[in-house]
Amino acid sequence: MTAACFTHPIDLIKVHLQTSKGRPHVWTTVRGIVSETGVLGLYNGLSAALLRQGTYTMARFAVYDTVKAQLQHTDGTPLKSTELIVATLLSGITGGVVGNPAEILNVRMQNDQALPPSMRRNYRNAIHGLYLMVRTEGIRSLCIGLGPSLVRATLATASQFVSYDVLKARMLRRGYEDSVLVHFAASFAAGLVATTVCSPADVLKSRVMAAIKLQDTGARTGRVRVWETAWTIYHTEGVRAFFKGWVPSYVRLCPQLVITFIIYEKLRKSYYAHYQ
What we know:
By secondary structure, the protein is mainly alpha-helical. It has helices at 2-19, 26-37, 46-71, 81-111, 126-137, 146-173, 180-210, 226-237, 246-275, and strands at 213-214, 220-221.
């Protein structure tokens, strides 16, 4: 949650780029947001982002550490790649399911100001958004975009956690002390891997969750087909569109991972020092 407070404006810019048609420039997007809603507009949807961190991220860390502990070898040897894959799959699926409603709210609240006034959802906060989603779209609306969300969550967990663990272990084997410097370097590199791996699923997830599909009657619904959206992006915008917002994604994810993993390591060491 601490990391989300620092990186939320970058995440908002990323969502605007991912849901836009064409190839808008980052600074053009920033100027548009600030000119319409002021500097505080860069924090639109912060309550949903905090809810997402409290559900999605917490679930991933908890399940990943729990599964790794259960699979730990009695002789102290490192876990095998297949065992790490099991841990990432379980934690990614759990995080994707638990955090999907907050993910929808996060995307919608960040993207709302990019829509025409008549099409905006005007969620006041995360709780108000959940209430309106269920009331106007039904309980199934909480599962919008669940497919790409699960794919992204699994890819994110694998690319972030596994790459961090592997890089950290290699640095420790080379004689580096288990310190903040090692945590910083491993998380910095993990951010690069995760941003590239997750970008296509992230773009698709943002498009599906933010979409408003107009029916013949003029009514609107938040449900669109995932593969239909993927094909439309590829057919009309090309493969590069799946990497829209890569730069702000990395600029957001890198400091977020650095802050998250450094705090995580401090809390983990403190826990083991007191309770083990």
